[in-house]
Amino acid sequence: MTSTLVTATTAATGGHPTVNSDGAARNITTPTRPGIPEWAASSLRRAYPHGYAGLEKAIADSSAEADLPNVADVEVHADRVRLSCHRGDVVAEVPFDVSGAAPHGGVPDFVLDHDRQAVFLFSDRDERGVAAPAWRQRLFDLLRPGYWLVEGAAEPGCALLPGVPGIGELLAGVLGREDVRAIHPWVRVAADAMSREPGTGGAEFAQNLHRASVELRRSGLDPELQRALDGAARTATRLRRGVQPVLAIRRTSRQAVLRGLDADDVDSLRATFADPAVSGRLAAAHPVDPAFVADASAADLLALVDDLRECEFFTIFLMDRIAPADGGATRSPAGVDHAPEAILITPGSLRETTTLVRSLSRANAFLFSREQSRRMIGTTREGLIGIDRGRQVVGFFPGLGSRSFYRDLGRGLLDSGIPEVVDVYEQGARALGLPGPEALLLVPGNVPGDRLAAQGFIGAAFLAHGLALDTHLRVTAANAGVPLRIAGYTGESFGIITAAVAAGALSVADGTRLAHAFTPLLLTAADGAGDDSPAAEPAAYLPESLRGRPLVTEPHHVVGLRGEPAALAALLAAVARTFPTSDVEVHKLYSHRQTNVYVRAGAKDAFDRFAGGFPAVAVEELKPPTTFLAHAERMTAARHAFERFMTDQGVVFRKPHAPVVSNNNSGLLTTAAEVRNGVLAIVDEVMASRATAETLDALRPDAIVELGLGGKSVRLLVDNDLDVPVTSYTGTAGDADPFLRAVRLTDTLLGQLADLRTGAGRITDRHHDALRDVFRAAGEDRFCERYLYRTIGRVVADEAARHDRSAPPAFHELLETLQHTCNYRDHVDVEAGELVLQARLRKRIVGAAEDLGQVYAELKVLDAAGVVGNRSLTRVEQHEVVVVHFDHLPGLDYADLAANTRLLLDTQPLARQIYDQVFDSLGVADDGFLTLPGVTTPTVDQLALGYLVYQYTLFRLLRLHRPAAFLHDHYLAGSDPMGWLVALAASGAAALPDVVRLYAAYLRSGTGTEEAQAALDRVLASLRTPEVPVLSSAGTPLQAKIDLEATTRVVFA
Questions:
Q1: Which helix (H) or strand (E) element contains residue 980?
Q2: What residue spans carry the Low complexity bias annotation (predicted)?
């Protein structure tokens, strides 16, 4: 039965925070009609956009209002929806045909439950029957960036997939039926033989099953039984065909999927599935998990797996089937018989399989929860950067905190000659009833004299200017031949409204009305203005009980707290224990090293004295005291008023054409409802700029552009240590804008590289001039430097990692000149046009004693006049080789190790895959090795597993995300027993579970015990030739198994 589990991270109460007359926070419950809890509604709307209304109605019609607050899980099955409480008891079960709600043709879900899998056997030969090993490499290249790829099962006797039963077990349900045995007793004999010795008697077995299928068809028995017998016969036949590559797609374990949930939810679900009654019902419902298997060409599979992109919870296995020897058995090179495992094929063709999987809901690919929905952004891009797809850019709109830079802007944008820019101003002016676009310009003559009216005008004009800048950038880039692709929009606080309009979720008119109303409404709510004009209009949207009663009783200081994360966290925790939120309230998580708070004026002196007790945290007043407290929980009533304004004004939110990155820690906003909630969040939810920056970094755009003045958004992103180049666009520099210049120069150079790759040209002055322009621009502007070196560096790294080196010599010559000049740009005069054509590292082995062993670089330099000369650099900062060092991590205590490990498991699929494999091998419960800090002392097994696997995982992740660091000579080294074992595992010389067992035994009983010796012997007996040399304590690279064995014995002597 297909099902989707939606899990709440907190109980849904339907309540909203508000304030009492004394300013203290309290909770009230707003009556609503029965419906899906809001925490689940957003995920289900995304999963079932066309059928959500019917789903909601079905639940509302079948549920009692009193039951809804108790709902913690919503399970969507193929034929019903089940609502359950935290204990797992069913609150309601609603009949519903989900097939009508599910979008067809979406992401295929090959899995019906947590252990089901799809398997494809495909030929690695082309249409003419010629071996085409490139198909396999293409599959690897396609899969590695986006999936959890497992290679293995390439030895005789290995199981094809973990957990796949033999053919005898798979056929037991079919051949065990009495009616089949009665008709064909000899099928039973063949099946029994196959079960005892899988792989033998394949021809006779297949023939018997074909005959049985024919007779069953004649007798009119179960058609599914006939298809199963036909599939079994095809399996037996295929077993004799020889080696074929296998692609398997399998859902990860349920425990792995749970990594996105809170600890309480994990414990609750584990307890549920550990219940014998529950596990018994599951076993009865799914006695056998047969795999879907189909024949396919490599080209079909390339297209098929590409459809799986953005599905987070799939593991993909790519391996070889071993050819059975004559008689059906598989023989190893040593002549030892092994029994290959087989798989029942049902359905029997790729077309049937894809038809089946595409009919399933794409929602079944995910486990929904509020936390997991936040983490799913799925837009990572990999591979060589092309020149024709356009640069992926994220637009970042500043907040009202930058409005001081907007005084007397003038009409530069309006007079830019771009009709689309003028249209933005015209639409905004019409929405406010202004006479023309000039009336929306931020010039002194346009700003009203009244305070509230002025703030409303500034908000509307601020939004119009941001939208005009966005339009100006896109049009200017297109006219300059610089293709851009918008990867998303976001904004700082108020800027999220502008982002929603730019992304298409709001019209310009609706966005202008919201921007015009936002500040006056919050000021009216904060100050408690009554029905007197001009506050009467915004006050009308407030609850009647709050009119004339201020939500903010006195001005608040806006204070920034800066310090290292640990010190900052300690101060914030102490503040939370000491001060009520009415005195001190966090309103902005600026970065890992800064948090901004509101401090009531009457409490400022006490707060300053208290903060003085934390000297590691700097306290800075960011702006004068104010009653405008956006992002404060006490402004919840203003949020309801803003929402009422949207309804009364008929503001319509639409599905955005580009994602909007929230600023309240809710990730990517891709639906109308999500964008609406994101806009409302700027009133009373903490601004999570740190999380916004992390999401932007995960999007991996080519650049982030602040569309506004002042550079405050650029500073925010820089303070959050973004890897992505960041700049601002003001619309005043035209084609000379640093961003457009950097993109244009980069595209010119990439275009020349592409031409040289496909043609037979040679390097000319035109190519060298393009290189000189690139390096001069990088020296003049910090953004150009970061953008050019990051973009071109990725191209160099990707090209260096290519297995295919068939490009013309001119292509590699230009690429090497680019790389060498980049590496040695501080040693040549790039501003004068010097380029490094060639660079060689050398070591002096003769000469004066003080010079022996000295490393120096020989450079071949081309100057601007075309003259080539040679230079030597005696001080070389580049390494000859890369050495990765491992040890017992003396500076990392176990509490920090546990926190770091959980972060890895939450954010890195490869890390989860490594730990799951180790768990399976060692029989460890998922995450059971992590001890809660301060609760119990970690055991020896936990220490060994935690520290050793953590270092191994970091090394694997480093190779995955920084492949260029390992393109040339690199070695592994360990300075102590733990470090040596990690190096052995990381090099491929030893199995990771074996070295964990050995180190646990070493910690538990020392080196001379029987337990430690047995574990050591096991490691030594299974040593393999390492993929990466391991350095001995004397610095000698070791690659022979005998040398590794001898050194390991010395380490554990």
A1: helix 977-987
A2: 1-13
CB 313 within 8 A of CB 260: no
674-690 burial, b for 16+ CB within 10 Å, e for fewer? bbbbbbbbbbbbbbbbb
Terminal CA-CA length for the chain: 57
For 504-657, strand residue ranges (E) read 556-562, 584-591, 594-600, 618-626
Distance CA 629, CA 441 (A): 26
User: Residue 635's Cα: distance from chain center in Å?
Assistant: 33
Residue whose pair of structure tokens reads 């006219």 in the numeric block: 479
Q: Which of 782, 791, 789, 763 lies closest to 702, judged by CA?
A: 791
3-state secondary structure of 811: helix
CA atoms within 13 A on the CB side of 989: 26
Which structure tokens are listed for 377? 């952004």
- pLDDT score, position 196: 54
Q: How far apart are CA 920 and CA 916, in angstroms?
A: 6
Tell me whether the CATH fold assigned to 556-626 matches the one assigned to 882-1051.
no
pLDDT for 1004: 84
CA distance 902 to 522: 40
SS3 150: strand
Encoding tokens for residue 803? 């297995």
* Average pLDDT by stretches of 10, the chain with 1053 residues: 33 30 32 52 57 72 60 62 66 67 36 40 50 56 49 35 39 49 55 52 58 59 56 49 50 30 39 42 34 47 50 48 37 33 30 35 26 25 34 91 82 86 91 90 87 91 94 88 88 95 92 93 81 65 76 91 91 91 92 93 93 93 90 88 88 88 84 90 91 86 92 92 90 78 87 81 88 89 87 74 71 86 86 89 71 76 89 67 87 83 81 82 65 61 86 90 75 90 93 90 82 88 90 83 90 84
Amino acid at 385: I
Question: How many other CB atoms are found less than 10 A from the CB of residue 881?
Answer: 11
DSSP state, 923? T
Instruction: Give the pair of three-digit tokens for residue 962.
Output: 């920084």
Residue (of 672, 144, 688) closest to 380 by Cα position: 144
DSSP code string of 246-258: EEEEEEPPHHHHG
Residue that the structure tokens 């770091």 belong to: 900
- Could you tell me if 15 and 30 are in contact, meaning their C-beta atoms sit under 8 angstroms apart? yes
Beta bridge partners of 369: 7
- CATH dotted code for 391-524+650-729: 3.40.366.10
d(CA 508, CA 502): 8
Burial group, residue 116, by CB count within 10 angstroms (0-12, 13-18, 19+): middle
Q: How many angstroms separate the CA atoms of 393 and 397, rounded?
A: 13
Give CA separation, 364 vs 43, 108, 113, 220, 457, in Å. 12, 9, 9, 35, 47
With contact defined as beta carbons under 8 Å apart, do 986 and 972 qualify? yes
Q: Tokens 């004999």 appear where?
A: 189
Residues 742, 722 contacting (CB under 8 angstroms): no
Torsion of the alpha carbons at 702, 708, 713 and 714, rounded to the nearest 10: 50
Per domain, the residue ranges of the chain are 3-100, 117-358, 391-524+650-729, 556-626, 737-873, 882-1051
CB contact at 8 A, 209 and 186: no
- 882-1051 folds as Malonyl-Coenzyme A Acyl Carrier Protein; domain 2 (3.40.366)
On whether the CB atoms of residues 258 and 313 are closer than 8 A, the answer is no
Contacts for 735 with CB less than 8 Å, ≥ 6 apart: 476, 480, 741, 744
- Tokens 């809890």 appear where? 37
Please state whether beta strands 882-886 and 1030-1031 pair in parallel, antiparallel, or not at all (unpaired): unpaired
Question: What is the C-alpha separation between 910 and 629, in angstroms, rounded?
Answer: 43
